Batch of 2 targets.
Target 1
Amino acid sequence: MTRAEEEVATQEKKTLGFWIYLMTDCVLFAALFATFAVLRNGTAGGPGGAELFDMPFVLVETIILLTSSFTIGLALLASVRGLKKQTLGWLFVTFGLGVTFLGMELYEFMVLIGEGHGPQQSAFLSSYFTLVATHGIHIAIGLLWMAVVMVRLWRRNFKKTDINRLALLGLFWHFLDIIWIFIFSFVYLIGGMA
Amino acid sequence: MSPKLDHHHSPVKYISYIVGYVVSIATTLLAYFFVVNKVWPKEALIFVVMGIAVVQLLVQLVFFLHLGRGNRWKVATFAFALLVVLIVVVGSLWIMHHLDYNMMNMSPDQMTQYMNENEGI
């Protein structure tokens, strides 16, 4: 094998390894979704989803995350074509959208806890906070990773290894987007029905 | 890079991301619109929202994650993960629903008594 072919083969192995990690993460979220589904009516006399969820707010959150998934795709395409400025630009937009999403989620949690509807109030809220916050922690880790990739791409002369890392980050980000779609559909839309 | 390798790694097009993005946004808004305006009764709405979520999953898998491109093991591991996910979610709901159903209309005290008498606990 030539050097270039070897690099392609190595990257393919890394992608598969990372993909398998994502699949195990799917199982983690499945357990949390199942817990939420079982405990969704266990409100202990407190308010349920219909009273607590601010639907327009959550819709905006969803659209922001969907858009960030799109912009990281654009960054990925630009990086493969060797366009440094465009890659960093789209990554910056993605980072901003991700921070906005995380900020909105934290604000939502603070409002709920401030009104006395924290995770300790009922089984429904415990499972809700566990599921949504686990996704939020993933987003926070993804943002940290994105910051590292951005600095490396910017300072280290746009190396092939860093572009390959960006491809894995893209997989991670799209995966979190899919998890959020299910949180939006099952927790907020279905869980928020009166 | 040899032409053979190139065949499996043909560059992903912009159009793939644009289509994925537009369809994702459209389906999200559609599901939101149906639920907020209560277009159908609750039971029907639940199935519609679940259906739309599955459509979005497929759209994102194809247009964003490009499942089916590259290594075939990706599809195999995905299929297995899907199986585990379904067992965990459907299994939990099934078992807990039956427990709930059979214990219906009992107060916690009655349930304790019932379990003492009949379950040997």
Target 2
Amino acid sequence: MNLIVRIVRWIWTVPSLLVIALGGGLAWSQATSSASATSPGASGWQWSNVSVALPTSETSFPPGDGAEITPQCLICHSAGMVLRQPPLTREQWVGEINKMRSAYGAPLPADQVDRLADYLFRINGASASHTAKMSTP
Amino acid sequence: MHRPTLMPTPMSRRSFLLRASAAGTTGLMGTWGWKAAAATLVELPFANGQREIVTNFPQKGAMLLQRTRPPLLETPFEVFDHGVFTPNDRFYVRWHLANIPTTIDTGAFRLSVRGHVREQLSLTLDDLVREFQPFEIAAVNQCSGNSRGFFKPRVPGGEWANGAMGNALWRGARLKDVLDRAGVNAGALQVRFNGLDTGVIPQTPDFMKSLALDHARDGEVMIAYAMNGEPLPLLNGFPLRLVVPGWYATYWVKMLNDIEVLNEADDNFWTTKAYLIPDTPHASVDPGQQGVRMIPINRMVPRSFFTNVQDGAVLKVGQTTTLRGIAFGGDAAVAKVFFSSDAGGRWKEARLGPDRGKYGFRRWEVMLRPSSPGAQRLMIKAQNTAGSVQPNQANWNGSGFMRNVIESVSVQAV
């Protein structure tokens, strides 16, 4: 991944390491920065443009019945968010899918919810006995 | 300022990493999806807790990858042992919406102040820096769902361990001063904040948060243009971020470019439907409990952590060891930090480090000299100046918000 990062430099900034010694032989240390050497109104203050590149995800959903629906999920977020969830009950997966549809506008037809929930439960499911029912605030 | 860290002998971080990579793990992530090439993995201590340590996000060092797009990056916990200010390049990252500008033209950038005001403003970055009295404050920024991964039973969401928080010295202009420049009209009720990020599809509600007018004008809420003496990393909100000391990070709107004074209650999705907590002590309910009144999340509660000792650490009988960590008081300063070496039987006050601001992290330190071999459960709890103290029992709610149970680590004296 090529990162083009033009870091802003502020002349008034002087990073420093401050060590404060207390009694009893204990020393508290902290990295800190002093930003008050020059007031922001001074001529040393300069803004620079910033341009960055964000990495793209290389994580994919595992194959299986229903996996063909997952590109709809990837419109808004990478697959890792789903795969790193705790194992959820099928009912919880239905709740998550419907939250994506109703709250965030995921373009997922109602007749695909069950198939996608079956798929997600298969790849990352928990039996209901191990997970309490959630209230969905 | 390097000091040795008490790492658990049987599971030092190095061996932990090696174990995670070598075993391939039987979990969800073991069989597909990972870039094979030398990913460094860690195992957070909950189911499906395997995380990659990544260094490929701009202006960021090594971070735990929770989600690539939009980015969720957790601060590796050892960073908190280095000092009370969290370095910008290790500060956690949390975005809701994936349409994040990756280029900021600082000359063209404008902060607008509009709505129920006498005079609309369109401020350049230089205006903000030069025309308003600079204000500085140290404050902890903590995700509402920090530590969500520890909820039992588990709840869906960003599955953080304890690293979705950080403390910085923020510098900027007081929101009050900016609002006064615009002149808030009589009848104004709330102030709504919007940043440059948007949803990928137009159906997704734009991320906005609101504060009551009195809160917005309290003289502490500020518009930050510097973080630990440097411009904010883009992923932490460059060029401007709202800072709401003592309140959860959901209110700290990143890439802030629009401030709207409202004369009626904000009804936008993110204020009325998201980030709600049960209106109960510790925002806690029983799993499955229904019919509880829900309110917007607001003030933070006290927390404290060990930073130089982990579960499984081995201590020597008869030898004095210095244990240390950090604490913060939430919406009030840390008053006291208490330590127990017998699973909460007896508590003694820890020694506190310098006070760098009531809303920031504060160091604590205790000396421990185990007198006999065996297992010991160490506990730490903070109390703030308003009298709020960390609870013995973990709270629970369906969103995984506001965890602040007393932290503990189990060690072995030999």
